[in-house]
Amino acid sequence: MKDDVPASEAVERPWASNDKLTYDETLKHVKRIDVVAEMALSDMVNYRTEMHDQKLRHEEELHKQKMEHEDQLFKEKLENNRYTLDRLYSVFTEESTSLSLLLKAAAEAMGFELVEKK
Q1: pLDDT at residue 50 tops 50
Q2: What is the C-alpha separation between 12 and 4, in angstroms, rounded?
Q3: What is the pTM of this model?
């Protein structure tokens, strides 16, 4: 009775070993595809991170240039205001002297009497 039972499934079904081989090869192929897909996803994430960092650095540089330009314009505006106020309040002695003489002459020509405060 023992001789009637085949020793393995391969003897009973000769194609079974081919099925197992095909299954093993398919699993190996799927594992290789998984590794390649994982590497591709990793590369994509790294690339996107690098591009995002470049974009942020570029935007930061543009903002820095803009702020420097605005600071320069503000300094020029302050300098112009200072010069204008200096001229307006006659900080320059030669201009203040001639302006006061002109005002005195105009007031006298109109008949006003100037009184100096003490």
Answers
A1: yes
A2: 11
A3: 0.45
